[in-house]
Amino acid sequence: MDISVVIAVGNVEDHIGHDVRRIAQALSRRHLAFEILAVGDDTRDTSLPLLQVLREEVPQLQVWGGSGPGRAFRRGATHARGEWILLWDSAVATQGFPASILGFALAELSRKDVFIMRGRLIAARRQAALPVLLPLVGKGDAYEQAFERRSLATGLRLGVRGPARRRPQSLLMRAVRGLLVE
Predict the structure, then answer these.
(1) Which of 18, 31, 69, 125 has its CA at 20 to 30 Å from residue 170's CA atom?
(2) pTM for the whole thing?
(3) 3-state DSSP call for residue 109?
(4) How confident is the model over 105-143, as pLDDT tens digits?
(5) In this structure, what are the phi and psi dihedrals at residue 160, rounded to the nearest 5 degrees?
(6) What is the C-alpha to C-alpha distance for residues 5 and 123, in angstroms, rounded to an integer?
(7) Are strands 84-89 and 121-125 parallel, antiparallel or unpaired?
């Protein structure tokens, strides 16, 4: 198995079927052996039943029930079999699955252990990343930041692309900067 795609499925019934089809098409075009693990992440709509029906069209798709808020990546990773793992939060990525950057992410993994496309996806060599991934719980920016910190702390070769996160400034820092500017 080349790649395991773990999708944290939130309340995304309006686009999840389209996204899974795009993932399967993008990976098939690259002639990769793959699996797609869709894991419920506190979803309350019909996303998971829709995906169960889609399994007839996409045989590489596995659907797992809810594992509690922010725990979908952990559950998916424990069942993943691919050499590489791709983590994608369907509820956070409002633009749909970034099929156009899939090739870029896979190319980065030829030189890195972990590649983070901020706000889009995390790709990693599964065996190297499991010690980082399994203890983490969460989603969105906070999850990406924790994944990045833990990857660096464990010595993994890390690549990051995308806009830098701005840290919120305290009122004191804003006041100090205001005094320095005036």
Answers:
(1) 69
(2) 0.85
(3) coil
(4) 888 888 999 999 888 889 999 999 999 999 999 888 889
(5) -135, 135
(6) 9
(7) antiparallel
